[in-house]
Amino acid sequence: MAKKKVTTILDNAVMTDAGLTLNGVVLQQVIDKCEGCERVMDHASGGNYCTSYAQPASKWSHGVCNFATHVRAEKDTGGKVKINPLKASKRAARGR
Ligand code: SF4
């Protein structure tokens, strides 16, 4: 069975003097934190680029990238667990 060729948005990108460009935006290569993400694609120019975000380094600058497929952003709730108020009132009514 023939393997399907996966087309990505990077197929429309062109190499310019400024770098790999897509619709006027210069794409930056992925960073080490992106390693393992399914959105990393090789480009014919020789670099690895993200298919979802033009500047991967800035995507990681405020914590975990929310597009990442290999890690999950976790919210620090400070030890508090949010309980559905409806369920909490039913539990209280049952005496639990
Ligand atoms: S989605 Fe996020 S983690 Fe994945 S390659 Fe793009 S910038 Fe990196």
Overall pLDDT? 86
Task: Describe the sheet with the most strands.
Answer: 3 strands, antiparallel
Radius of gyration: 21 Å
The span between the termini is 59 Å
Low-confidence stretches: none
Instruction: Name the helicity range.
Output: 10-25%
Q: What class do helices, strands and sheet pairing give?
A: alpha+beta
The SSE order reads: EEEEEHH
**Strand arrangement in the largest pleated sheet:** 1-2-3
- Give the percentage of residues in beta strands: 15-25%
Number of domains: 1
Heterogens: iron/sulfur cluster
Number of helices, where a helix is a run of at least 4 consecutive DSSP H or I residues = 2
**Strand runs, count:** 5
Instruction: Identify the overall geometry.
Output: elongated
Describe this structure in words.
- The mean pLDDT is 86.
- The protein has a three-stranded antiparallel sheet, with no helix packed on it. A two-stranded antiparallel sheet has the order 4-5.
- It has 96 residues and is α+β, with helices and mostly antiparallel strands.
- The chain has helices at 56-59, 85-94; strands at 14-16, 19-22, 25-26, 40-42, 48-50.
- It has one domain.
- Bound molecules: iron/sulfur cluster.
- Iron/sulfur cluster binds at residues 30, 34, 37, 39-40, 50, 52-53, 56, 59, 65, 67-68.
